[in-house]
């Protein structure tokens, strides 16, 4: 499945696209950090980032969108920009009938490194290793977006329509019955891989 | 000038349209509260509200959009929905080249009632009086959206292109030189009305 991961932000918005196979292997498709100048008014900044996100969706046609779930932080103005971009990103996905999933930073860290409190450096190093890259994607927003996309594919078992629980919507976390042959193959591969410990993390 | 006021929210989004004349008199054009069901996932809720906002913009063709400036409140999930809707609303305005202005709740209260800590009842009563309505618009989100629209027209002196300071963008609050005849007429009327005390509030 192809997942678009978005680390939302008004100044820097990390965007990563990965293809993840049933055996959990992942390939980098694209990674970019969209930016908007701080001296532009907020509506113009939102439009810049929105244009960039739409272009990437059109170019790469992902099966699902994974966004960082935003929590309150110390800097209120940062939260606002982040929440505004996440709203714009969700709307772009909804208009194309793409499933959207939200993952917390600790969920992403746990999925990628096995440790929910991993630092940015550890996440970046694991992302590079998973994707077979020579260098860690920079800036951190780029690595975070890729980590989100990989995390999403791994947590959903690669079933594009099965968005991980949006807690606000009260959705279930697991794909329901009536799986397609491809989905069954994915789940079988998932179970076979459970000795690696990665599958255990899926059940956290 | 015709102003669209938006009190952003995911569950209830107040929307008010008013026409404000150079003599500061205001006429109700439309008022509605857009809603989205809490059991829908966030992207779908954003799309519902976005559809409603776009329909109102298309129908009434406002000259400017006034939004409530969102601050951190106790309930983080409410802030997120509010910020997401405000992002979507700003983008809708930007796509149509409409100026967007943000006003804080206390700026709106001060402009409408002369008192920055007025309660919702006082704001509603003044909105009804300004617009010559028999009853206070309900729910409070509707009255708040109308108050925002009136506040914006009054604070900008009715000059559609002169958005009140978006603090983040560092814009100036007052219209610059090179006024059109209509703008000069507005300012003259504004000065003539200063005995009422309303113009003093404009200079706060």
TrEMBL record, chains A, B:
InterPro entries: RNaseH-like_sf (IPR012337), RNaseH_sf (IPR036397), X-over_junc_endoDNase_Mg_BS (IPR020563), X-over_junc_endoDNase_RuvC (IPR002176). It holds the Pfam family RuvC. Mg(2+) 1 binds at residues 7, 141. It is found in: Cytoplasm. Its cofactor is Mg(2+). It comes from the Bacteria. PROSITE patterns: RUVC. The active site is at 7, 68, 141. SUPFAM superfamilies: Ribonuclease H-like. Gene3D superfamilies: Ribonuclease H-like superfamily/Ribonuclease H (3.30.420.10). HAMAP family: RuvC. The RuvA-RuvB-RuvC complex processes Holliday junction (HJ) DNA during genetic recombination and DNA repair. Endonuclease that resolves HJ intermediates. Cleaves cruciform DNA by making single-stranded nicks across the HJ at symmetrical positions within the homologous arms, yielding a 5'-phosphate and a 3'-hydroxyl group; requires a central core of homology in the junction. The consensus cleavage sequence is 5'-(A/T)TT(C/G)-3'. Cleavage occurs on the 3'-side of the TT dinucleotide at the point of strand exchange. Belongs to the RuvC family. PANTHER family: CROSSOVER JUNCTION ENDODEOXYRIBONUCLEASE RUVC. Homodimer which binds Holliday junction (HJ) DNA. The HJ becomes 2-fold symmetrical on binding to RuvC with unstacked arms; it has a different conformation from HJ DNA in complex with RuvA. In the full resolvosome a probable DNA-RuvA(4)-RuvB(12)-RuvC(2) complex forms which resolves the HJ. This is Crossover junction endodeoxyribonuclease RuvC.
């Amino acid at each position: 499945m192809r997942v678009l991961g978005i680390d939302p932000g008004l100044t820097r918005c990390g965007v990563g696209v990965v293809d993840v196979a049933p055996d959990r292997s992942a390939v980098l498709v694209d990674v970019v950090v969209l930016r908007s100048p701080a001296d532009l008014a907020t509506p113009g900044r939102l439009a810049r980032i929105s244009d960039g996100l739409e272009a990437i969706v059109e170019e790469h046609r992902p099966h699902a969108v994974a966004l960082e779930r935003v929590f309150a932080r110390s800097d209120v103005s940062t939260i606002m920009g982040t929440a505004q971009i996440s709203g714009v990103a969700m709307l772009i996905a909804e208009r194309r009938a793409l499933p959207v999933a939200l993952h917390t930073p600790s969920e992403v860290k746990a999925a990628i490194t096995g440790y929910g409190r991993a630092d940015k450096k550890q996440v970046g190093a694991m992302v590079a290793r998973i994707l077979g890259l020579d260098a860690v994607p920079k800036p951190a927003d780029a690595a975070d977006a890729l980590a989100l996309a990989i995390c999403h594919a791994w947590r959903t078992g690669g079933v594009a329509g099965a968005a991980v629980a949006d807690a606000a919507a009260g959705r279930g976390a697991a794909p329901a019955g009536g799986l397609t042959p491809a989905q069954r193959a994915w789940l079988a591969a998932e179970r076979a891989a459970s000795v690696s410990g990665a599958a255990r993390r899926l059940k956290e």
